[in-house]
Amino acid sequence: MAKVLVIEDDLLLAQSLYDWLQLEGHRPEMTHDGEDGLNLLKVSGFDVAIIDWDLPGMTGTEICSNYRNAGGKTPILMLTKKSTIADKEQGFEAGADDYLSKPFDLRELRARVKALLRRSTNLFDTGRKVGSISLDNAGCTVTIGTRIVKLLPREFALIEFLMRHPHTFFTAEKLLDHVWHSEADSSIQALRTCISRIRTKTDEEGQSSLIETSKGWGYKISENYTSDLAIETKTSKPE
Fold it and tell me: How far is the C-alpha of 236 from the C-alpha of 239, rounded, in Å?
């Protein structure tokens, strides 16, 4: 299950790609604006990005160039109606990894996404670790000390985002923007419900909560929670 960003201003095509990616078992996010897409690509840790060439705010090639110049490594598939060799050269020089001309067959898109995901696996770890907390992208689980907790895709996406920025508070609005991102169920209540479910699954009596809340600041991964688990794990080992 991969995290895939779709940046496409054709609303019908973008929704079709989003729905198809979900059916393929991936976790897609979608935006229709170039600048917004670049910001998401930089901070949200995607496995693959599917980017249209002609976008409002910033073109696909500008997104690629800006992202690569900032050190970004996520594989990028460029979608465009342009098909000349010169156009393809421009896309590759900007930092795209692959190129698909519109209109295209979903079977070809599937093959190209799979190829980029194999490349992505070589570029990135399959999981993420902060202190004694680790995530497994393939299994959609979080491991806390010796406990393995199965998460729903939305819960996993929220924990994954917070763990990518372990020392930063995010307001509810920022989390909705980065994790839900303009989806129909995006609301403060949806966020609170998601956090409540995570705490029910991960927190134990007498320990700090996995997700720390601070009035006026928002939410982040609790450093106290990590420290408590690290101490517990260390002292529980046999001499």
Answer: 9
Residue linked to tokens 């101490």: 231
Residue 8 burial (C-beta neighbours within 10 Å; 0-12, 13-18, 19+) = buried
Strand partners of residue 214: 218
- Residue 118 CA to its chain's centroid (Å): 17
Tens digit of each residue's pLDDT (9 = 90 or more) over 2-29: 789 999 999 999 999 999 998 888 888 8
Give the chain's length.
239
The single-letter DSSP state of residue 208 is -
Between 66 and 84, residue with greater pLDDT: 66
Q: What is the pTM of this model?
A: 0.59
Q: Give Cβ neighbours of residue 205 (< 8 Å, ≥ 6 apart).
A: none
Nearest partner of 142 among 54, 201, 102, judged by Cα: 201
Does residue 154 contact residue 185 with C-beta atoms inside 8 Å? no
Residue position matching structure tokens 């790609």: 17
Residues 6 or more apart whose CB falls under 8 angstroms from that of 80 comprise: 52, 53, 54, 60, 87, 91, 99, 100, 101, 102
Sheet holding 48-52, edge to edge: 27-31, 3-7, 48-52, 76-80, 98-101
